[in-house]
Design brief:
Length: 348
């Protein structure tokens, strides 16, 4: 059995290089990812783009925070990593020539960065590694992808039509799915939620950990691909960063589980103000990373589902607003554009 680890967007340095988030990311590597790789003798990783987060202002603080925990350990454990360039890795939007992985990781001979479509062979299985498509390389990549027989497996950082960009938010436009029907399996980064098309065998792998509140209750982790059986296994990351608490004249959950998390407290009813204040104090005493209290949620768009209150997220509100516009602009393209802006804003 020959296994290859598949790792989605890591966005190192996200959230303005917050030390708290860096620790959250490093916890994944030190407590889950590397122990699993060593236990199962995995020495090959394919990382599907957006290794770093900020295209133009990568924080040295963030790089320092992950260097010893992440990159130095690769070399220490004898692990080779194949890195595809993603859209967050490149300085110019229309060119891959200036990019953070090649500039920062050149000291590591075991880390290989791919700035053009390349075929590699791992344990007798061929992988087509395809970086982010932009104006500079799109003709080269389309020619590469349209060959009759390219490789067994395709790995990329793609925008593919109709897949969810984030949970509940499908993208519109992008590459047609039938472009990938010549592969046994396609695995892609870029979109942060896991999703799968069984007909065209396309798997968006998602991110290994929570990065924004939109990731709440959306499973995170990494995948392992067996080159013998061609099976892809998902390894769940149990560590979470965000929590949503509903207070209705009390709370029956475990307050201690909120420690070090960003918490959104939804107040349905608080008849006893003293009791509520004591509850808020007890939440703060757990040393939550961030506490946001939402009391005037009756002004938001609430939907009853299974007896619980579900508050629409910002993306849904944006989509509803665009749907009501009178405009000649393609509304699906406008939604995708606004979603991209929103995703960038919440990663700051």
């Amino acid at each position: 059995m020959a296994l290859v680890a598949i790792l989605g967007d890591t966005h190192l340095g996200a959230r303005n290089a917050s030390s708290h988030f860096s620790n959250h990311f490093n916890k994944f590597f030190s407590e889950l990812f590397y122990p699993y790789l060593r236990e199962h003798n995995i020495t090959q990783i394919i990382q599907l783009g957006d290794l770093f987060d900020n295209r133009t202002q990568l924080s040295l603080k963030a790089y320092h925070a992950c260097k010893s925990t992440w990159f130095d350990k690769l070399n220490e454990y004898g692990i080779e990593m194949h890195v595809l360039l993603g859209n967050h890795d490149i300085f110019y939007k229309n060119s891959l020539q200036v990019n953070s992985p090649e500039l920062l990781l050149s000291e590591y001979s075991n880390i290989k960065v791919y700035n053009k479509p390349t075929i590699i062979d791992l344990y007798g299985t061929t992988f087509a590694l395809v970086p982010w498509i932009c104006d500079e390389n799109k003709e080269q990549i389309y020619d590469f992808m349209n060959r009759d027989k390219i490789a067994d497996i395709c790995c990329g950082h793609f925008e593919i039509d109709g897949f969810e960009m984030m949970r509940g938010m499908p993208g519109h436009g992008g590459l047609p799915r039938n472009l990938f029907d010549r592969f046994e399996l396609t695995m892609s980064g870029h979109y942060h939620t896991k999703s799968y098309d069984p007909y065209y065998r396309i798997q968006y792998v998602g991110t290994p950990y929570e990065i924004t509140f939109a990731d709440l209750n959306d499973p995170r982790g990494f995948h392992v691909f067996d080159t013998d059986t061609r099976k892809l296994e998902f390894i769940h990351n149990p560590n979470t960063m965000f929590a949503r608490v509903v207070y209705n004249n009390g709370y029956d959950g475990d307050i201690s589980s909120l420690a070090n998390k960003a918490v959104k407290l939804i107040v349905e009813k608080k008849s006893d103000l003293y009791k509520f204040d004591r509850f808020v104090d007890s939440v703060k005493l757990t040393e939550v990373y961030e506490l946001q209290i939402i009391e005037n949620f009756q002004d938001l768009h609430n939907v009853e589902t299974d007896g619980t209150i579900s508050i629409e997220n910002s993306q849904t509100i944006i989509n509803h607003y665009i749907d009501k516009l009178t405009t000649s602009v393609d509304k699906n393209r406008l939604k995708d554009f606004m979603t991209g802006l929103y995703a960038e804003s919440i990663s700051e």
